[in-house]
Amino acid sequence: MRTQKRCMGYVAIVVDDYDRAIEYYTNKLGFTLVEDTPQPGKRWVVVTPNVESDCNLLLARASNSRQETFIGNQCGGRVFLFLQTDNFWRDYEAMKAAGVTFCEEPREEEYGTVVVFEDLYGNRWDLYQNN
């Protein structure tokens, strides 16, 4: 019997400028730029926290005023994305040194260590490490 592999390939996040977003995600969060391909009227820009990951972040520039209203508010103020790490303190300290905005102090939960941060646009993320 053949099994299918299914996974999330991309999660799109609305941004105001490709280059500004690339700079933030690569230099502040330590992501890798996977692809930056010009297309008519836009670019296909993909970054990833881990080049071996099946799930990547697609940086999608807003193309009209309606889309612009969602920049920084992808999830209505709730945590939108969850960045899992194998070394919480290493990544937390690196992100803090790079100027990432944290909304709270790191905390221990029953599942592991977590802290909420905001990206360049104000979207809220969890940085977490499972126990």
Automatic annotation (TrEMBL):
Matches recorded under PROSITE patterns: VOC
Entry-linked SUPFAM superfamilies: Glyoxalase/Bleomycin resistance protein/Dihydroxybiphenyl dioxygenase
InterPro entries per UniProt: Glyas_Bleomycin-R_OHBP_Dase, Glyas_Fos-R_dOase_dom, VOC_core
Keyword list, A-Z: Dioxygenase, Lyase, Oxidoreductase
GO MF: dioxygenase activity; lyase activity
Domain VOC: 7-130
Protein name in the entry: Catechol 2,3-dioxygenase-like lactoylglutathione lyase family enzyme
Native source organism of the sequence: Mangrovibacter plantisponsor
